[in-house]
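Budget justification note: compute hours in this period were largely spent on complex prediction jobs such as the one shown. Inputs:
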Amino acid sequence: MDSLCEQIDKLTINYLEEFGQLISCKQILEDTIRQGYFNISHARVIMGVNNLSYLQYSEKDPMLASTKISISSSPFQIEKQTDKEHCNDTLKWFGLLTPNILKQGQKSFQQTIDLALDACRRQENILYLKSQIEQLLKEKKSYLTKENLIDNNNKTDE
Amino acid sequence: MTSNITPNAGPSLFGGKSKLIAVIGDEDTVTGFLLGGIGEINAKTRKPNFLIVDKNTKVSDIDETFKSFLLRDDIGIILISQHIAELIRATVDGHDKPVPAILEIPSKEHPYDPSKDSILRRARGMFSAEDFK
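Corresponding output:
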């Protein structure tokens, strides 16, 4: 029983730590994506409203992702896979000489993608820890219930 | 961690196990992430892994697209602006499998609110007073 409680305590601490990390990860993600939005808006002012929109999305057939992931559910793992040669190609959709600030925007979003993967890992970890803790709490509860039954039986025997 | 992979001659730049990052958001969100290199239009189905949501987009279309992303076996993560996730909250909350993973992100006009986040709500509410005996 003691070891059960110890396990629960340990997992709970991990859980709370991971939760805190996730919140701060999401905060950094928000700051980074905001920077990206700012850069894109700024670039749009320089380039003209109609030159930085979905209309410029590549018509090249096929549009291929240069940044993908490999993901597995158990154990939960996400790894980024980038085609380093082509990962900045999308900048060309908007012209051959795009302002530097658009390039910075691209970087911001690339960083946001990394943070997003991190957040996903932490999310899944938290849910996993939660299910482990709940399992142990159930065990503890059934143990306590059995103990109570035995105590009560002993009392009625007396 | 990233790996440098040289493109093959075929339509895919990677081996078979790679999955896409999908995104549902306003135009700037989608443009930003596509700049980051995640955009793809499936060669066979002509379907994109992104959806731009503006004031004219119907909620049913958002719902349908989100569900279609869940069903695709080539999408590993769905990034969705939180205020859009709110519009289809039931569908988002209904997904409890680890893959595809879902991440709610802030948008330009709507800062991130942890109390509305689907995953964080599932992760809370674990202990009751009973458990501290």
